[in-house]
């Protein structure tokens, strides 16, 4: 097994913390126009045919019990990607019966773990009962792809687009099995720096738990069920608020989540007084092309959402200040950077400690709010235009709700995933997101 095929430490962690009730796959529900009632069936045929030609979709994950060489001394007990010898795209692309509710079907499909013995991805084609639209739900295991990599794989089975030509890669220097002795002082300093960073992150995590006031609505005993919902907002409205108050588009989108939580908690009678849940805002730290192993490397910002503040402008200012503070400190420090510690855990430690780590998520943060990049180009499948796309994030153990956000073609798409038993009223939270944007416009824009 080539060392280049090994899972990166964080990918290995995602692979090992998964359970039947907490699958670790990403999702994206794309809604397309349908030129005819048969457009959905034609789309399924296209996806299966194109998937056969995408090498990344042929990769399965298997355990590795021997370190492949001295460059990977801690790889014992890890896992690696390898081509599946019996790959059949028809096992991964499924055409469903027509439905009137794409989100209801997506929720049921998101709760099903991917089969671990095969390449861990699926595409579900959902024809609309109206005959003028269909949807495709893509599922990719987080160990196979992060949000950007999942987008690349999904785009490979959509209609070809005129993407900008990629820059040629510079030649990679040959890698040594052992380091040059002249580099040892730098390596020692780097190791000491890593230890210091780990201690800093650990202390920040401990401090982040002090004075935490969340809501029982955001935590639950896992039922293994899922419900999804989507909200579409006008990006121009978000920019109007940003220009009036300052900050970034992301600040506004996070503040909308805080305000929506306040509305939702008050409407369901849970109350928002004193509630300031910790939101984890992931930050991608993609490995350089010369890094080995390749794969996910994430950090994050941990931000208290000012749900208890009744003033919408005050909530936005609080979010903006907190995010500015996080950015000034950088993604390598603070409680949100816990995922970076995965690089310093031996592979066998991830395997043995995965179940314990999965249960610790609720001690670290209360809700995930993540942004998934999308291209500005109009995407199509079988000539049918993609009109909406809702990203879905994995739901951590003990947590009831996760929020993912994408912008596409001048609109903001919120993809919401919830434990269906704990949050039967997810549609009310979705409405609260839309209502909160209107409140911010009235409060901020003259």
Could you explain the architecture of this structure?
This protein is an alpha+beta fold and 446 residues long. The chain folds into 2 domains: 9-157, Chloramphenicol acetyltransferase-like domain (Chloramphenicol Acetyltransferase), CATH 3.30.559; 190-371 and 398-444, Nonribosomal peptide synthetase, condensation domain (Chloramphenicol Acetyltransferase, 2-Layer Sandwich). The protein contains 11 helices and 14 strands. The protein has helices at residues 9-17, 39-51, 102-110, 147-155, 184-208, 235-245, 249-267, 312-329, 347-359, 361-364, 426-444; strands spanning 25-33, 59-64, 78-83, 93-95, 121-127, 133-141, 227-234, 278-284, 298-304, 367-371, 380-381, 384-392, 401-408, 411-418. Strand 13 and strand 14 form a beta hairpin. The longest helix has 25 residues, at 184-208. It is globular. The termini are far apart. Residues 7-252 form the O-acyltransferase WSD1-like N-terminal domain.
